């Protein structure tokens, strides 16, 4: 009989993505402990749970508590470190690098090797440059598209719109269209500028806005769940 599966959780600032080791698809739910427990109820009981979270300490403590109560098993939290699984972290304080970025780099290097540019277009957009031999040169953090749009409403008196139009980088003819085009243009042009600076590198893109950015001309290969890919490699190396 095969042993129960190991559950992988990628907790971002908007969404939790989960799957079991050895699976290829992904399940999503909003980043809330009770929503996650609900979404896991139909799944088989895991033998272990492995977590990559950038949601913050208070959220993580609540989530780990809820998972341990529900499944009565230990939860392992991945952390960014100076060097692991072929990647050397550029940060002087390695633990302060978002663990989702760390896992995405580990996943990318596992999939296509290095040099590679790793783009995660989620709540925030991160771009990490990984040179030959897995040497992380450094990266970029930008607000994600949704965050850019919301910030304009929050921090101005007159930028108001009902609904954002479909992704576009064409000049807008109403406030919502101008805000959306501005945000998509900023996101896509930033990513393309970094990719163009490293012509010898493969570029992989993941995250909720990856497909839309590719449709708008971002030059990168889609890899849907790079954080879970890296987390799976880490989990297998840690707990087999
Ligand atoms: N229905 C949606 N709900 C939330 N975000 C969405 C939706 N559709 C697209 N997005 C975009 O996806 C981004 C979140 O991507 P995701 O990879 O799930 O983020 P994170 O890893 O930060 O949780 C949002 O910032 C937004 O720009
Ligand atoms: C930059 C991020 C907010 C991206 O998070 P996400 O968009 O995936 O929710 C996350 O990687 C993070 O909190 N990083 C810590 C700071 C750092 O990486 O330097
Ligand atoms: K991100």
Count of runs of 4 or more consecutive helical residues: 7
Report the helical percentage.
25-40%
Q: Supply the number of structural domains.
A: 2
**Averaging pLDDT over every residue, what do you get?**
95
In CATH, the architecture of the largest domain is 2-Layer Sandwich
Distance between the termini: 17 Å
Q: Under the CATH scheme, which class of the largest domain?
A: Alpha Beta
| List of distinct ligands in this structure | adenosine-5'-diphosphate, ligand PAZ, potassium ion
The count of strands amounts to 12
H-E order: EEEHEHEEEHEEEHHEHEH
Biggest sheet, in brief? 5 strands, mixed
Overall radius of gyration: 19 Å
Describe the structure.
With 240 residues, the chain is an alpha/beta fold. It has two domains: 6-77, ATPase, nucleotide binding domain (Nucleotidyltransferase, domain 5), CATH 3.30.420.40; 92-226, ATPase, nucleotide binding domain (Nucleotidyltransferase, domain 5, 2-Layer Sandwich), CATH 3.30.420. It is 38% helix and 25% strand. The protein is built from seven helices and twelve strands. It has helices spanning 33-40, 57-71, 99-112, 145-155, 175-197, 210-215, 226-239; strands at 6-11, 15-20, 27-30, 48-53, 75-77, 83-84, 87-88, 116-121, 124-131, 135-143, 202-206, 221-222. The strands form three sheets. The protein has a five-stranded mixed sheet, sandwiched between helices. Strands 10-9-8-11-12 form a five-stranded mixed sheet, with helices on both faces. Helix 6 links the parallel strand 11 and strand 12 (221-222). The protein is globular. It starts with 5 loop residues before the first strand and ends with a helix. The model has no long low-confidence stretch (mean pLDDT 95). Bound molecules: adenosine-5'-diphosphate (ADP), the ligand CC(C)(COP(=O)(O)O)[C@@H](O)C(=O)NCCC(=O)O and potassium ion. The ligand CC(C)(COP(=O)(O)O)[C@@H](O)C(=O)NCCC(=O)O is lined by residues 12-13, 54, 96-98, 100-101, 120, 122-124, 126, 141, 144.
């Amino acid at each position: 009989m095969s042993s129960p599966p190991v559950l992988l959780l990628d907790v971002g600032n908007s969404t939790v993505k989960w799957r079991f080791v050895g699976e290829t698809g992904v399940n999503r739910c909003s980043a809330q402990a009770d929503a996650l427990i609900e979404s896991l109820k139909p799944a088989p009981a895991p033998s272990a749970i492995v977590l990559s979270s950038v949601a913050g300490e208070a959220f993580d403590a609540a989530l780990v508590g809820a998972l341990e109560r529900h499944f009565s098993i230990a939860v392992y939290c991945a952390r960014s470190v100076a060097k692991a699984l072929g990647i050397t972290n550029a940060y002087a304080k390695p633990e302060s690098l978002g663990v989702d970025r760390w896992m995405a780099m580990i996943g990318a290097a596992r999939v296509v090797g290095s040099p590679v540019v790793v783009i995660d277009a989620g709540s925030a957009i991160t771009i990490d440059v990984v040179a030959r031999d897995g040497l992380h040169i450094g990266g970029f953090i930008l607000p994600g598209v949704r965050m850019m749009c919301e910030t304009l409403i929050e921090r101005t008196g007159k930028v108001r719109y009902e609904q954002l139009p479909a992704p576009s980088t064409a000049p807008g003819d109403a406030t919502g269209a101008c805000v959306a085009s501005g945000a998509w243009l900023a996101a896509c042009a930033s990513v393309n500028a970094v990719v163009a600076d490293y012509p010898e590198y493969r570029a992989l893109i993941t995250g909720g806005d990856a497909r839309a950015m590719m449709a708008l001309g971002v030059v990168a290969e889609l890899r849907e769940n790079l954080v879970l890919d890296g987390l799976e490699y880490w989990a297998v190396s840690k707990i087999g």
